Structure formats: C-alpha cells, structure tokens
Amino acid sequence: MRFESVINQAVAIGYESLPISLIIAFIAAAVIAIQVAKQFLMTGAEAYIGGTIAIVMIREIAPGFVALAIGARAGTAISAEIANMQVTSQVDAIKTLKVDPVGYYFTPRLTAAAITVPMVVLLAEVVGVGGGLLVSNLTIGLHPNRYMYSVWAWLATKDIYISLLKASVFGVLISLVCATQGYETKGGAKEVGNSTTQAAILSTIYILFADFIINLIFYIAK
Q: Is 111 helix (H, G, I), strand (E, B) or coil?
C-alpha cells in the first residue's frame, strides 16, 4: 500500500463528499427543528429543543445520512472505477506485474474511508447542531444560550465516540462492498453499470444493518 494512494482516496472519499454531506446535515437538522419547535413551545419544553436535536443528529442522523451520501457519491465511483479496470483487463495486467490486487485496489480505499468518514461526520454533527440552533431561533425565537445549555446537558461524550465508531465502520463497509462489486465484474460496459447499481444497493443495506447492530450493542444491550 502506497501512502500517496491513501491520500488520493482520502480526497476522493472524504474531501469531495464534504459539501453534500454538510448540506444534508444542515437540512436534516433544520427540518427536525421545524417539526419539534412549535410542539415543544406549546408544552413549555422549548428549553429541550437543543438537546433533542443534538441527540438525534449525533446518535443517528449525521453518521447514517453522511454514510449514505458518501456511498452514493464515492462508493459508486469506486465500484465503477475498479469494474472498468476489470473489464478492460487492467487488473490482469497488475497481476502479471506481480502486484497484489488487494494492496493496490482495496487497502488504500479501506484505510482512507475508515479515517476520513468520521472526520466528515464530526463536521456534519457540528453543522447540524448549528443548523438546529439557527432555525429554532428564527422560528420560535429560542435564545441560543438556552439551546446550547440543553445540548451540553443531554449530550454525553459516549455519544460522540459511538457516532465516530459508526462512521468508521460505515466507511469500511462502503469501500469494501463497492470495491468488491467492482473487482468481481465480468463482461463489458453493461456489467459495469450493473455492478455500480448493485454496489449502491448493497452498501446501503449493510450500512443500515450495521447501524442496527451498533445501536443494539451500545444503547439497548448495555
């Protein structure tokens, strides 16, 4: 595995997915704030809006939505790139040169995804909490201090650690599933498209299943 390959993959998986990930996080938090703000205000519980949004964003929305966005953007690109190399015999050429395909195709992508997806998720969580604060202030006039007080009161350090663990697992799953689908492609251009579609579907299923398992371990079976 070459360090340069890891950096290139980190840019493709993490940095280039950053804009869409942050936009999704902001919109998701804004929608949650709109949905709960008036109901909380009617019951006198508006002081808990910040904590509610923070818990939902950090435990579930940010890791899940960001992983799905990266899978749809970077994961499908990984699958299509490797599938195209496979059908044009570039993979066979690599094997002929005594280069390990796993170290050349898989390992840089797995390493980059495991490192960069948590970074993107962490930024998305900050943006999401900030988006909830902005919308709550604009819609019901909730003071930022009251919002942030409930965020710090409800949020635990464990929640952030678990969200980053989720992000790392999701990143590995995305790169592993998509690279495998591309690597196993046989045929021509049509099969490249089929592999890309299958990679998107399978990575989504595995992300949701892994999310369920991690929640089961850390929040239910504790």
A: helix
